[in-house]
Amino acid sequence: MITELLKKHPLFFAPVVPFNWSEGRFMVLDFSETNPELERVNLQDSRLFSDYVFGKLHAADALAGVGGYNEHRSIYRRSAHFQQTDEPRCIHLGIDIWAAAGTPVFSPLEGYVHSFANNANFGDYGPTIILEHQLDEQRFYSLYGHLSAESLHGLYEGKFITKGEQIATFGQFPINGDWPPHLHFQLMTDMLDLKGDFPGVCTLRERERFLSLCPNPNLILGIPGL
After folding, report:
1. 82: phi then psi, degrees, rounded to nearest 5
2. Cα 169 off chain centre by
3. How many domains, in total, are found in the chain?
4. Exposed/middle/buried for 68, CB within 10 Å: 0-12, 13-18, 19+?
5. Rounded CA separation 4/8 (Å)
6. In a domain, 13, yes or no
7. Do the domain assignments include residue 16?
8. How far apart are CA 218 and CA 174, in angstroms?
């Protein structure tokens, strides 16, 4: 099972972002339905949403905000992109790292470009890269969403990526899907025949199925307390 395999290699992975988590200059951001602060933020306005996120980081003297795996969120109500079925999508399947636009993104281990796309709907991933990896003969995939447009330049399917190689930078709204600057980092064991995209949020009914396909990305990130 991929979860057990990743647990076997806790020191094997290169950093995905240039932060030393052991220094503690990060804060866990709560975007769950139980956070009353979100009721006072106009989430439809990306600038106001960004001011809220980075205001909290500044007040805490934090370089980055983190969190979100398996979080039941209310923030997706801002976008019709997550309301396209009878049951809205609300369970977050990756970890978000909220930091300044332009923050570099690195591959945690060697692999290949599986696919990439600009998912340009309001509230979507914006520029997205998906890498394919193999560890102890087991294949899995990593997804990087909300990137800069420049991150897609020069890519092609099958391009070899070395461990620790810079692959992208955080995008700015509206290019990044119209979100405050952050990286959505997600792992998948099966791409379900998709390319350049994969659900980063699922419905409550689909929660168990998608969590089995998308193991906790913190097994690679190694952020204390998540």
Report:
1. -100, 5
2. 13
3. 1
4. buried
5. 6
6. no
7. no
8. 27
Q: Which domain holds residue 115?
A: 26-220
Q: How many helices (H) and strands (E) does the chain have?
A: 4, 12
Assigned domain for 77 exists: yes
Question: In terms of pTM, does the model score above 0.70?
Answer: yes
Strand partners, 117: 128
- For the stretch 126-167, pLDDT in tens is 999 999 999 998 999 999 999 999 999 999 999 999 999 999
Local structure of residue 78 (DSSP, 8 states): G
pLDDT band at 84 (very low <50, low <70, confident <90, very high): very low
Tokens of 127: 């520029």
CATH number of the CATH domain containing 201: 2.70.70.10
Contact at 8 Å (CB) between 87 and 71? no
Task: Say if 95 falls within a structural domain.
Answer: yes
Dihedral, CA of residue 196, residue 27, residue 72 and residue 5, to nearest 10: 60
Grouping H, G, I as helix, E, B as strand and the rest as coil, residue 69 is coil
